[in-house]
Amino acid sequence: MNPTIELLNSHRSIRKFTDEPVAQSTVDTLIKAGQAAATSSFIQACTVIQVSQGERRDALAEMANNQAYVSEAPVFLVFCADMKRHKLACDMHDADMLSGYTEQFLTASMDCALFAQNVIVAAESLGLGGVYIGGLRNKIQDVSDLLELPELVYPVFGMCLGHPDQNPEVKPRLPLDVVLKQDRYDDSQDAERIAAYDGDVREYYKTRTGGNKDMTWSEQISGMLVKEARPHMLPFLNGKGFLKR
Where's the Nitroreductase domain (predicted)? Predict the structure, then answer.
């Protein structure tokens, strides 16, 4: 163990923040830390939009299923997968860009995820806290219109950041043997391992909610995956020039 590993293992989603502002110089530092993340073939395909508090932020909160902390957080960032600047690079050299490939969608989206993870780890190292907001994809076309995103740019997720005003427990993760396999994919014992893990998750939820939530991990996942998962995403992405081939 060292301070870096301890910091990573202590991650919690923070949804309540104090009124203390976060200096813009700190935000700039966090974004530079994000830029230092690995990037596939040096494409650097992440653009971050910082949205100030006000009407635009309130609209994003509504679009994200009325999550109040989107409005309330001192800092709100939207991480966008951006291939438009690559079109510009091609234009600068009179090259015809071949776009719409699934691989380009994957690498741009992964760039955003790696960038954002650096940002939140850097923020936590400074005593800040935050939470990812995937709910922006509930009304992704509205989000795109509000932020005036052009073709070849789409919002992957948002992130609230600020000084924590809560101290939740660390949520238990799956057993190591379930996620770390040796030499081949062997899930012959995963069911019993997950069943044991379910007990830890049930206890976590009971503690966190004062007994109001009584649910295991497998119950939560099975309930989620019998429902449609944002079927509007594919036509939206096609319209933005992604996932065409």
Answer: 10-163
